[in-house]
TrEMBL record:
Protein name: Pre-mRNA-processing factor 19
EC number: 2.3.2.27
Assembly with partners or alone: Homotetramer. Component of the multiprotein assembly MOS4-associated complex (MAC) at least composed of MOS4, CDC5, PRL1 and PRP19 which is related to the PRP19C/Prp19 complex/NTC/Nineteen complex identified in other organisms. Associated with the spliceosome.
Pathway: Protein modification; protein ubiquitination
GO cellular component: cytoplasm; Prp19 complex; U2-type catalytic step 1 spliceosome
InterPro entries xrefs: Prp19, Prp19_cc, RING-Ubox_PRP19, Ubox_domain, WD40/YVTN_repeat-like_dom_sf, WD40_repeat_dom_sf, WD40_rpt, Znf_RING/FYVE/PHD
Role: Ubiquitin-protein ligase which is mainly involved pre-mRNA splicing and DNA repair. Required for pre-mRNA splicing as component of the spliceosome.
PANTHER family named among the record's database cross-references: PRE-MRNA-PROCESSING FACTOR 19
EC class name: transferase
SUPFAM superfamilies with a match to the protein in the record: RING/U-box, WD40 repeat-like
Main location: nucleus
GO MF, one annotated term: ubiquitin protein ligase activity
WD repeats: 259-291, 304-345, 348-389, 390-430
Length: 527
């Protein structure tokens, strides 16, 4: 009598009424308790179906091998060999399982790459389709004389005047009233504004270090040339030599969208948060307006071709209804964002000099421009006339930034940074942080007007003071790209971090260690 489970002679034999099979009692009881079935036939089985078998109690004879020490050693040797063989078989199975897992992971990674490529091709196809759908009605309407619209330009704007220039509609009195009203409101608000208590203190900035680095652009064409931050969302936009603009969500560390359409490097870009727009300017002489969708994708709604040379700067008016572009053709254009139409083009096309930077004053009635001839020009937006000139720089004016207090203008060029008092129209301080061969590429006040960031071969943060007192250097952040050229540096909300772009493909975030996720509740708004 052999147990159907263990294959040995049972001590307490029992038999199943259903199948007639013999089992060891303790083994079948445990199996029925766990599974409720016969271990051999898999039929339902309970302890009521088990009948004990009564046998005579006999003493089992000891195996012959166990009767001597050499026999016992032989038994142990056989069991050890069986254990080693079993262990070897298990190791082979583990190795096979690991190979299968590695192959499955490789297939999964390849599938993810294919899916990502297909998604990118789908998004590009959708963008091209949307562009074609917009261009087809425009081309069909091209035959009608007055209301024809093509790429954001009215046909009437294409009329050529007697001097050979395109006739522009100009900034009408209604727009001027709107600009003046916005200026009055913002000026009144500025006088009441206090430095927010959530602003990062000086001792925090002194401890800033790199907390993350994100490769956003292509490896074959590295270089981030421009950067902007969304004023209410923690989103950073970068423009690169690879002709793409990338929208990056800092808290999640994910790329939200890539804006592809320019044929040459993107030199400047700005957010227009009111309508979820992005405006980009490029060395291909065009400006593009991109519209965001609820899905997070952006499509080009206007391509503006009013300049005849590289577009170097885009700046958004405080109303978020208008913007200005400045280019190396020595002209700047005033645009209506909603229609993409050029209302006014100021300047004479020149091959010798041109504009390299531009920025609206926070109140919106003054425009600052920097030229290749090291001159800073101040313009009255209402009349489009040059009301002041600041001279003294060496080399092209690469960047400019108005302080939120409305009194200071910082400009950057080959010889460093100059600070200008707009009330007295004079230079009151000069920083020359680098040698004569290293240009200063970026200068930026934070939103509160408390700090100033200067970028060249590294990033230097100064404490903003006044005309008479010294502006102290708080922190020098190294250029970790290895290129020796930092192109842009911008403060995050409440100066809780600094975003840096260099001539490699990485966007770098500097802040307090372990503080790479900031609270979004106290972010300032540009409105």
């Amino acid at each position: 009598m052999i147990c159907a489970i263990s294959g040995e002679v049972p001590d307490e034999p029992v038999v199943s009424k259903r199948s007639g099979l013999l089992f060891e009692r303790r083994l079948i009881e445990r199996y029925i308790e766990d599974h409720g079935k016969c271990p051999v036939t898999k039929e339902d089985l309970s302890m009521d179906d088990i009948v004990p078998v009564k046998t005579n109690k006999v003493v089992k004879p000891r195996p012959l091998q166990a009767a001597s020490v050499p026999g016992l050693l032989g038994i142990f040797q056989n069991e050890w060999d069986a254990l080693m063989l079993s262990n070897f078989a298990l190791e082979q199975q583990l190795h096979t399982a690991r190979q299968e897992l590695s192959h499955a992971l490789y297939q999964h990674d390849a599938a993810c790459r294919v899916i990502a490529r297909l998604k990118k091709e789908r998004d590009e196809s959708r963008a091209l389709l949307a562009l074609a759908e917009r261009q087809i009605p425009a081309s069909m309407a091209g035959a009608t004389p007055a209301a024809a619209v093509s790429n954001g330009k009215r046909a009437m704007e294409e009329e050529i005047g007697p001097d050979g220039k395109k006739i522009r509609p100009g900034i009408n009195p209604v727009m001027i009233d709107e600009l003046t009203e916005c200026n009055t409101m913002l000026s009144a608000q500025r006088k009441k504004r206090q430095v927010p208590p959530s602003l990062a203190p000086i001792d925090a900035l002194e401890r800033y270090t790199q907390i993350s680095s994100h490769p956003l652009h292509k490896t074959n064409k590295p270089g981030i040339l421009s950067m902007d931050m969304h004023p209410s969302k923690d989103i950073i936009a970068t423009g690169g030599i690879d002709t793409n603009a990338v929208l990056f969500d800092r808290p999640s560390g994910q790329i939200l969208c890539t804006l592809a359409g320019h044929s040459k490097k993107i030199t400047t870009l700005k957010f227009v948060p009111r309508d979820e727009l992005v405006v980009t300017g490029s060395a291909d002489k065009t400006v593009r307006i991109w519209q965001g969708s609820e899905e997070g994708n952006y499509s080009c709604i206007h391509t503006l071709k009013d300049h005849t040379a590289e577009v170097e700067a885009v700046t958004i008016h405080a109303t978020q209804k208008y913007f200005v572009t400045a280019a190396k053709d020595n002209t700047w254009c005033f645009y209506d964002i909603s229609t993409g139409s050029c209302l006014s083009q100021v300047g004479e096309a020149s091959g010798q000099e041109g504009y390299t930077s531009a920025s609206f004053h926070p109140d919106g009635l003054i425009l600052g421009t920097g030229t290749t001839e090291a001159v800073v020009k101040i313009w009255d937006v209402k009349t489009q006339t040059n009301v002041a000139k600041f001279e003294g720089h060496a080399g092209p004016v690469t960047a400019m930034s108005f302080s939120e207090n409305g009194y200071f203008l910082a400009t950057a060029a080959l010889d460093g940074v100059k600070l200008w008092d707009l009330r007295k129209l004079r230079n009151f301080r000069t920083f020359s942080p680098y040698d004569s061969d290293t240009p200063t590429n970026s200068v930026e006040f934070d939103f509160s007007g408390s700090y100033l960031a200067v970028a060249g071969s590294d990033i230097r943060v100064y404490q903003v003071a006044n005309v008479k007192t010294e502006w102290n250097l708080i922190k020098t952040l190294p250029d970790l790209s290895g290129t020796g050229k930092v192109t842009s540096a911008k403060f995050g909300a409440d100066a809780k971090y600094i975003a840096v772009g260099s001539m490699d493909r990485n966007l770098r975030i500097f802040g307090l260690p372990g503080d790479d996720q900031m609270d979004d509740d106290t972010k300032p708004s540009s409105e």
